[in-house]
Structure formats: C-alpha cells, structure tokens
Amino acid sequence: MTKLHAVLRAIGPCVCLSVLLGLLAPVAQAGGDLSSQSAQSSPKWLRDGVICEIFPRDFSPAGDLNGVTAKLDQLHNLGVTILWIMPIHPIGEKGRKGEYGSPYSVKDYYAIDPGYGTLDDFKRLVTETHKRGMKVVMDLVADHTAWDSVMMKHPEYYKRDKTGKILPPVPEWTDVAGLDYANPDLRAYMIKMMEYWVQACDIDGYRCDVASMVPEDFWKEARARIGKIKPEFMWLAEASKPELMTQAFDIDYDWPLMASLNKVIMDSAPASDLERTWLESRQEFPKGTLHMRVSDDHDESRAVARFGINGALAASALMFTLDGVPLLYNGMEVGDATESGDPALFNKLTIFWHPKGRPPLREIYQGLINLRGHYASCFCNNRVTWLRNSDANDVVTFMRSDGTNEFIVAVNFSNRPVAGKVELKNGGGFKPVPISGLVDPPVGDLPQFQLNGFEWQIYHRAVSK
Q1: In this structure, are 130 and 241 located in the same domain?
Q2: Are 34 and 246 in contact (CB under 8 A)?
Q3: Domain span at 426
Q4: What is the count of structural domains for the chain?
Q5: What is the pLDDT of residues 363-380, one digit of tens each?
Q6: What pTM, to 2 d.p., does this model score?
Q7: Which of 356, 379, 402 is the last residue of a domain?
Q8: What is the pLDDT of residues 25-67, one digit of tens each?
Q9: Which H helix or E strand runs over 4?
C-alpha cells in the first residue's frame, strides 16, 4: 500500500485529494536521513498525557463552553490530562456550509463565537481545567479564514490570482480564503494574535490545523516567540511531515498507522502491517519523534461505526499501549456513534452520552488510562519491542518495559477466536492484567494465548534484579 493510499484512508472523506498531495509530497522528499537527527524535545506533561479532542458545539445539549466546563470532573476522573478544544471563534456566514458552518472557517481570531459564550467563559474553562491539573490546547487555524473575516480589510493578507481575486487554499474548500505567508505583515498579525491567547487566557498549547500548508519557518518563528512567554508550551501539528519535528513541533498525527489500522480491521489486511508501518515511521522521522495515536477524530467516521464496538476497543488497546500520546474524541469513551465529519462538521449533532447496548466503555478506557499512568515509565517511553507470534495475520504482540516491569500486549484484530504462542526466550512469570469493565482474563501463562474475536490481553511481570 502506498503512503498516499495510507493517509487517504486515515484522514477520510473530509480532506480532498489535492490537499493530501500537498501534505504528503514533503514526506516523500524528506528521505530517511532525518532519522539520524533528533526530534524537538517535548514537555513531560505532553509525553505522559492523554488528549481529549472536544467539539463544544456537540459536546453538550447547550453546545457552549460552559457545557465543557460542567464535565471537567468526568474528564479528569476518566484520566484525561489534556483538552484540545476545537476552534472557538465566530464562524463566517459568507459561503457557509450547512446550518452552523465549519469551526475551521474563522471570522475573527480575537473573538469567541457568541453561541459558545464569552471570553470570561473561556477563561473560566481554562482556570477550572488547570485547577484539576489538566492542560488546555487551543485549535489554531492559520492557513485560511472565512470569506467575511475581519481581516478582509487587508486583501494583501490573502492569496490572489493575477487579477487580484482572493483564492481558497484549494478549490474544494469553498467556504474559506487562503492566507499568504509571503506577506510579513500577515505573519506579524498572526503571531501577535497567538501571543494574545497565551497571555490573556493562559492556554498551554496550539493544535495547528493543516500545519503542512503553512511555511515551516513561520512555525519556528511563532514557537520562539511563544516560548518567551511560556517555555513549556506545546505544539501539535496536523501533519505527518518529518521536517516539522526537528525544530517546529512537539507532536504530530500518526496518519499512516491509522490507515493501516483501517485496512487491517476493515479490509482484512494482515495484522503484521501495523508493525511494518510503525517501523517505517521510525526510519523516516527524527529520533524521538512523538506521534499522536489516533483511531477516532473529527475527520473520520466514528471508530464504532468503522470497526464495531469490539473492534474499536481493540484499536484503542493498541493506541493506548504503544509509544506516543493517545487521543480520545468527543464521546468516544462511551461509544457514541454520532457522525462528526462532513456534513456533520457543519451542523449540530449532540453526543449521545448513554447509547444503548454498550459494554462499560468508560470503565474500560479508565482502566487503560490508569494502567498507562501508573506505569508511565513503561508506557510513556519510546521503547517498543515487537514480538513474533504464531498468528501474525490476525494478532499483534509487543512488549513495553522500563527495566523494572515488563508488559506484553496481545491484540486480536480479527472477529474470530484465535489460539497461539508468542515467541519469548523466557515467558515465565507473566500474568494477565485485569482491566476494569472487562471480564477477568482466564487463568493461563504466556507464551500461550487464547483470544476471542477482537479480544486483547495485557500481561505483566516484575523484572528480577
């Protein structure tokens, strides 16, 4: 499978082909030489974190910032440590798609969408999040604005054709106008705006929309300027571009792994493709690159719709036990199947917090997150040892360790029962780890394993010294 195909499958139908070609071309050009360089050093709170992406419009019946604040205790108890809030600015009306419009069509970077509340509401959300020891990441849409943006009084800020007509970033994005970073005044405007939100609201990071479509040197300049205000500030790139990870960004999207996951579960590709994709990433990206592990987000059909409930849980078991930082998206922890991408991105479809016929998913996610947090030195380092097993077509097995504890994760990505054996030089002492919300694992020791369809097990042993 080509990298283009992989990322097309990962991102889903909301992003057009021409944009993806632009996003992926730099990846192909980067070459393997970047793997000898070191990635940007990331804050510890990010490396040890669990990110929850929140779409305020759909997060509560009220669809506002106070609706998010009201659920902070639930998110904290779940184990979430980082809130990524999708864009909170007023949405353009000119060329709007759907009833509400895309939150990525920004009318005024300095304002709060009146449907979401006020600046004081956002400040309160940040303050209350910080009181619980959590961080707030703000969604930054730097590539484009709405057609009726307040910035349109400066047409020189925008990309234009030979006649002076302002252009969208790509033809398919008809509801937004592309910004021109060749203009130094635009750069100054954007950086000043980014500084404003850090200084006014004490946010902890930016998630940078279509980061590959904005010049890399701008991100480096912005990082340096924000770093003078808040040194531990975090930068998340919506991209999969090795060059961005040396000096500009702390973490990016692992689109290739998400694409392989789609093919394994939906198209019966061999489970070993997941290991292969992971290894290819190690060969392409700078050493120590931190990836956000994604199985569900606003650009993809919901995981429970693509994979089924058990398949979605198997996907999460992988993403929450691999290296990198796992992502929860907007009701994923209860198995919400409400659509989130096109056209739902342009309307309001409130999360259904109590869907029928679900296992205790919140407990299961909480159990995974608690395990990851309790053994952070195992699960939050960058060491993953992939282990051979007797059924590589259906099952992945790998080890996470820190020299004191060892964990082996076994995930069955098929819908049928499997029995097999993990290749271990010394398999003695590994015991199944109970996860809250799941049936207690059967008595039995590695290297043998038995897994039902989409079942997964985590095994632990303490290392003798």
Answers
A1: yes
A2: yes
A3: 385-462
A4: 2
A5: 999 999 999 999 999 999
A6: 0.93
A7: 379
A8: 444 344 457 888 999 999 999 999 999 999 999 999 999 999 9
A9: helix 3-11
